[in-house]
Write a structure and sequence with these properties.
The chain is α+β, with helices and mostly antiparallel strands. The chain has 15 helices and 12 strands. The chain starts with 10 loop residues before the first helix and ends in a 7-residue tail after the last strand.
C-alpha cells in the first residue's frame, strides 16, 4: 500500500515530534490501555499512529483509513515484535517500510521479519465462498484438540467448550497423547456415574460428561478444598457453565489415576499451590507461577480476554519472554479477529493480519503455506506464539489451572 503523498523527514525531526507533549487520555481506562501499549524506552503505538496520520497528509480517506487499521494491528498486540528491528531514533523508517510508505530519505534499519515482497502476495478466498481442503499440518502436536468438532454438552455446543477442551489437552499430555490410556483412566470414573466411555468419540466428550454428570453438592461436601472452601462456588458456574470452572476441572483431574490430588490454581483473588493458600499475585506473579509449574511438569491452562466473554487456552511451552499456546478455537489475530479452525482466512485477514500471523505461526511452516494459499486448517490454534507483553495487554492469566502427574514413591 503506497499513500498518495510522501513526506520526507530526518531522524532529528522524528525525535522532535516524539518529544512533543501528547494530550491526556480522557479516562483512566484509556490511560491504562495506553500504558500497556508503550514500548520500553520509546513512544507508544498511539504516537506511531499519529505520526503515520501525519504522513498520510492529504491522501484519500480510504487510504488513510487503511493505514490506520494496519497500524492499529501493531498497537493491539501491545508491542512491535523484536524482529521488526525498529530503531527508537528513527522508528518510522522501519514501520513505513512495512506499511509500504516510501520514505527514501529516512535512515535506520528495515524490518527483518521476512515480509519483504511476499507481504504483498495476497491470495483471497474463492469468490463463491468455497475453500481448499483443510490442511491438518501439525502432526507432531498429537495432543492438540479442536473444540469446534465437539458434540454438545447440555446446551453448550463445541463453540462454547474452550475450557473443557484445553483441560482435556492437559489430561492427554499426562497420558502421553495416547487416547487408549486416557479412555482407560476415564472409564471407571464414567462408570461410577452410570455413564459409558465412547472410545470412538472425542476425548473432550468424556471430560464434559464427567463435568456435567458429577454430583457437585456431594463433591463439595467430601472435598471442599478443591473449591477453596467456598460453598457458593456454583453461583459463578451455574448449570452447564460448570464445564468452564477451573475448580470443577481440578476436582475431576484429581479423580484420574496418576494425577496429583492437590489443588493448584491462581487467579486475581487467590493463589493455591499444592493445596496451600497464599496471597494473590499480579500478572507478573501469575506468569512466573505458571512458568514454574510448567517447568516442573505440570499441565497449565488459563483464561484471558481473547474474546468478550473470556477464552481458555492450554500452554504448550515457554520460550524466554514469550509463551507458545494451543488455542482450541483457532488463531487470535487481534484486530483481524479469530481465524477459526476449519475455516479459510478471509482476504481481510490475509491483508491486515499477516504480521500477527507470521509471529503466531513461527513454528508451523505448514500453516504459513495454508494461510498464503487461502486454505482451511483444523490446526490454526496449534503452537501459537504470544509475547508476554501482548498477553498482559489482553488481560491473560485471569485464572490459571495446573494439573500435575502424581509423584510415585522411589
Amino acid at each position: 500500500m503506497a499513500l498518495a503523498r510522501t513526506v520526507l523527514c530526518t531522524p532529528a525531526e522524528v525525535r522532535m515530534v516524539y518529544t512533543q507533549e501528547k494530550s491526556s487520555p480522557s479516562s483512566e481506562g484509556e490511560a491504562e490501555s495506553s500504558s500497556k501499549r508503550r514500548l520500553p524506552g520509546g513512544p507508544s503505538n498511539r504516537d506511531r499512529l499519529e505520526l503515520l496520520e501525519l504522513l498520510a497528509g492529504d491522501s484519500a480517506p480510504e487510504e488513510a483509513a487503511a493505514t490506520e487499521a494496519e497500524c492499529l494491528e501493531f498497537a493491539w498486540v501491545g508491542v512491535l515484535p523484536d524482529c521488526l528491528g525498529v530503531d527508537h531514533d528513527a522508528p518510522l523508517g522501519s514501520l513505513a517500510e512495512l506499511l509500504g510508505i516510501e520514505l527514501s530519505a529516512m535512515e535506520g534499519p528495515v524490518g527483518q521479519c521476512g515480509l519483504g515482497d511476499a507481504a504483498g502476495e495476497r491470495v483471497p478466498v474463492e469468490s463463491d465462498g468455497s475453500r481448499a481442503q483443510a490442511v491438518d499440518g501439525d502432526a507432531e502436536n498429537a495432543t492438540y484438540l479442536d473444540q469446534h468438532d465437539n458434540p454438545a454438552a447440555g446446551s453448550k455446543d463445541g463453540g462454547s467448550q474452550c475450557s473443557a477442551t484445553s483441560f482435556t489437552m492437559g489430561l492427554m499430555n499426562i497420558y502421553d497423547g495416547e487416547a487408549e490410556k486416557f479412555f482407560d483412566a476415564a472409564e471407571p470414573l464414567l462408570a461410577a456415574l452410570g455413564q459409558s466411555v465412547d472410545r470412538d468419540g472425542q476425548p473432550e466428550q468424556a471430560v464434559t460428561t464427567l463435568l456435567m454428570e458429577t454430583d457437585w453438592e456431594a463433591a463439595y461436601a467430601a472435598h471442599p478444598n478443591f473449591f477453596e472452601h467456598n460453598p457458593d462456588w456454583r453461583s459463578w458456574t451455574p448449570g452447564d457453565d460448570v464445564i468452564k470452572s477451573p475448580n470443577a476441572q481440578a476436582y475431576i483431574a484429581s479423580r484420574f489415576e496418576g494425577i496429583d490430588d492437590a489443588l493448584n490454581i491462581a487467579s486475581e483473588s487467590t493463589t493455591v499451590t499444592d493445596g496451600e493458600q497464599s496471597a494473590e499475585m499480579d500478572f507478573n506473579g501469575r506468569w512466573d507461577w505458571a512458568r514454574s509449574a510448567w517447568e516442573d511438569g505440570g499441565q497449565v491452562s488459563f483464561q484471558g480476554g481473547f474474546t468478550r466473554g473470556g477464552h481458555v487456552v492450554h500452554i504448550n511451552s515457554f520460550k524466554e519472554d514469550h509463551m507458545v499456546i494451543d488455542d482450541p478455537s483457532g488463531m487470535y489475530l487481534g484486530r483481524s479477529g479469530y481465524l477459526q479452525n476449519g475455516q479459510a482466512p478471509t482476504a481481510s485477514q490475509q491483508a491486515s493480519g499477516q504480521v500477527t500471523f507470521e509471529y503466531r505461526s513461527e513454528d508451523s511452516p505448514e500453516l504459513k503455506e495454508a494461510f498464503k494459499e487461502g486454505q482451511a486448517s483444523d490446526h490454526w490454534g496449534a503452537r501459537n506464539h504470544y509475547s508476554k507483553a501482548e498477553l498482559d495487554a489482553v488481560d491473560a492469566l485471569k485464572w490459571v489451572l495446573v494439573i500435575k502427574p502424581r509423584q510415585l514413591p522411589g
